[in-house]
Amino acid sequence: MWVPTELAKTKHHRIEDCLAVIGQEMGRERRVVMVDEADLLKFSILEMCRNINERYACPFVFIGEMGLAGKLERERRMTSRLRRKMTFNPVSQADIYLYFESALRLSLPPSDVALIQRYSKGDWRPVLTLAVSVERAISASGLKEIPDGLIKEIINDRES
Description:
single chain; 2 domains; two-stranded parallel ribbon
């Protein structure tokens, strides 16, 4: 079980031992457990998280694709315990501009912002991986700003 490893830096193989560590740690300091790609979990694992939440007041944040909502809504005992649901809209041009500005301290021209948005199809992951590639290219060349055509070149390399 993964929770004790993250909470207390210990590793146990028996469920009872794992639950004991979770109980001790939640009593010592209450923390939130974030589960990314929760839509890929089997329902039995989601159910186990619900049980841990009830037993130890251990809050969980599930992050996942749209299938997660459907999986949770199959069981009333799961949906009745949901505190808040958030849906993220597709990434906008303003999001892209602000991300490059704040994370990389780089100003993008509107044409590059539009190009990135079309390339990303509204998903954050392509924006993030593209930003990493841009930052590496700029750092490697010692530049302080994005040269004309760099964004298009990186996108073309990825699409071919």
